[in-house]
Amino acid sequence: xxxxxxxxxxxxxxxxxxxxxxxxxxxxxxxxxxxxxxxxxxxxxxxxxxxxxxxxxxxxxxxxxxxxxxxxxxxxxxxxxxxxxxxxxxxxxxxxxxxxxxxxxxxxxxxxxxxxxxxxxxxxxxxxxxxxxxxxxxxxxxxxxxxxxxxxxxxxxxxxxxxxxxxxxxxxxxxxxxxxxxxxxxxxxxxxxxxxxxxxxxxxxxxxxxxxxxxxxxxxxxxxxxxxxxxxxxxxxxxxxxxxxxxxxxxxxxxxxxxxxxxxxxxxxxxxxxxxxxxxxxxxxxxxxxxxxxxxxxxxx
Amino acid sequence: xxxxxxxxxxxxxxxxxxxxxxxxxxxxxxxxxxxxxxxxxxxxxxxxxxxxxxxxxxxxxxxxxxxxxxxxxxxxxxxxxxxxxxxxxxxxxxxxxxxxxxxxxxxxxxxxxxxxxxxxxxxxxxxxxxxxxxxxxxxxxx
Lengths: 301, 142
Prior knowledge:
The structure holds 2 protein chains of 2 kinds.
Chain A: H1 2-13, H2 25-37, H3 41-54, H4 61-74, H5 78-85, H6 96-111, H7 115-127, H8 132-148, H9 152-160, H10 169-179, H11 190-199, H12 203-207, H13 211-233, H14 237-275, E1 281-287, E2 293-299
Antiparallel strand pairs in A: 1-2
Chain B: H1 3-21, H2 51-63, E1 73-74, H3 77-103, E2 113-116, E3 119-123, H4 127-130, H5 136-141
Parallel strand pairs in B: 1-3
Antiparallel strand pairs in B: 2-3
Helix pairs in contact in B: 2-3
């Protein structure tokens, strides 16, 4: 009877206790990577954060931080990517993961249109003597960063450093040759534009190919100069002074505008030139041979 | 009024009218995002002792406010001018303002155009016009 009562007690009471769920670190890690693979980058970040919070002692924590950084990169959240990656790419760390994290930090600056900062990281990765694939990728990316800075010769030199056996080699070879052509683009001289604008308002704009601006600048300056001269000529000194003051602004703006227009013309020339070059580099997540997921460099064809 | 002054005023009015209809200096009240810095609420809001900032603010708040939206650029010329004055001081700001009023007529050829509130706008901020001599980020990065 007592046993029956005890049985009834457990039948009633035991289900009321919460069920305990055991999460294995590997399951949590794989779940996060699966979210990442599906392209749900911010969801993957949440899962990686959960992994780090639940298993802070796991040896996979640095890789999780690296993958988090990559998710942020794909989500265009570059500052957060660097925040995560910087915990792996410590200044004195030389392990492969730290080198990859350093490369990814460079990539974040590159994607953020900060080629100078990006180049610093790529150069450092290249000098750290990492794996061949990473070294070639760093040289290739360094070349592109130099291209964005319009440092054509340095870009060509960087592309030359990509090894022959690298899948990026053919592209690098072409870019090595093409990048030098950036020096021979039909640039216009900002100094010349400024001098021309100073001699005749509007002429500098015309030199830069902006004819409507040239006409407006010529008319505005011509009108104000004429009115200023006439005012002084007819002894309206105060009016003449005011007009001269305003004209000084138009005249300075005319010179500034001519130089500015030429720089913009040259920038567009360089941008159009770069658009014709093919970037074969792609950073994405692929499965490695042992079934583990990791960061890998791929070539886009 | 002296005949010369009258002629000058008439010509000025004519040019301004032309410029206005061509979108050269047509202005403001376009529904662009609120720019606190340009509106004097940014970190350097207390430093608005610049005459240029005052003049451009006055134009934007009291003249353009009743004028309708015609500026083809983003930010509008007055907001641009305020930023230029704040960033580079009176003299360079003035030159940049004059340049902006002149160049926006054919800026579309070299600057990106995006749809803003259903209207195509030339994206032409101050940074698009001082990039060749003022790059604080890249200098800091060195």
